[in-house]
Amino acid sequence: MSTEAKRAEWRRADARRRSARKAAGLCLRCGKVPALPDSTACEPCREKCRARDRERWRAKHGSKPRVVLTEAERAQRKAQRRERERQRDRARDAARRAAGVCTSCGTRPAAPDRVQCEPCLRVSQARETLRYWKAKRDGLPYAGRNPERKRAAGRIGHTATGGCPMRIKSVVTPCSRLQFTEFTGEG
Fold first, then answer.
1. How far apart are CA 171 and CA 132, in angstroms?
2. Strand pairing of 167-171 and 180-184?
3. What is the biggest distance separating any 2 CA atoms in the chain, rounded to whole angstroms?
4. CB-facing half-sphere around the CA of 63: CA atoms within 13 A
5. What is the residue-level pLDDT of the chain in tens, covering all 187 positions?
6. Do 110 and 126 lie in a common domain?
7. Which domain holds residue 8?
8. Contact 54/68 with Cβ under 8 angstroms?
């Protein structure tokens, strides 16, 4: 009898043994003790399986001790991660500015005197307009992180073109649904 035939015979015998144990309500592994109500194994066999699985995991991943952090340490790590992300984003944006491409998508050329391309610029403006209306609806001040810079940028945009460079044809007011329907580049 070949090795494959022996294996197939063993699998059939094992399947018969397991189905008989399951029908009797016994543990499928040992067949001596009734299985737990929500399982096919008894508690000692479950614990053996868990221990074996833990050993396999440790063998594969190495035994790394679990680090328990305090709330202050967790906050510190979060702040450090945010700072790394900010530095990475600043470096990426600087490289994109130097290359003359959009800082948002990085694929299209930036609009004249802007750091974003026209499609990304429209999306950003719509997002900012939505933020403005939401803040106005909720009675909150709207200025972002740097109110003076936002005011100056708004004045530049309005005075350079004789009006808002991106007019919103129809904005659903904050009283209703806060939706934007169409933008034009007309001044």
1. 12
2. antiparallel
3. 93
4. 2
5. 789 999 999 999 999 999 999 999 999 989 889 999 888 899 999 999 999 988 888 888 877 767 788 999 999 999 999 999 999 999 999 999 999 999 999 999 999 989 999 999 999 999 988 888 888 888 777 766 677 776 776 665 544 444 444 444 444 444 444 444 444 444 4
6. no
7. 3-57
8. no
Give the position of tokens 């094992």: 14
Number of structural domains (the chain) is: 3
d(CA 102, CA 120): 8
**Which residue in this structure is represented by tokens 């066999």?**
45
What are the angstrom distances between the C-alpha of 45 and each of 29, 48, 102?
Answer: 7, 5, 60
Convert the pLDDT of each residue in 138-148 to its tens digit: 877 776 667 77
pTM (2 d.p.) = 0.44
DSSP annotation of 88 reads H
Q: Are residues 53 and 11 in the same domain?
A: yes
Q: Which of 183, 187, 186 is nearest to 122 (CA)?
A: 183
Q: Which two tokens stand for residue 11?
A: 């699998």
Beta-carbon-side half-sphere exposure of residue 110 (alpha carbons within 13 Å): 17
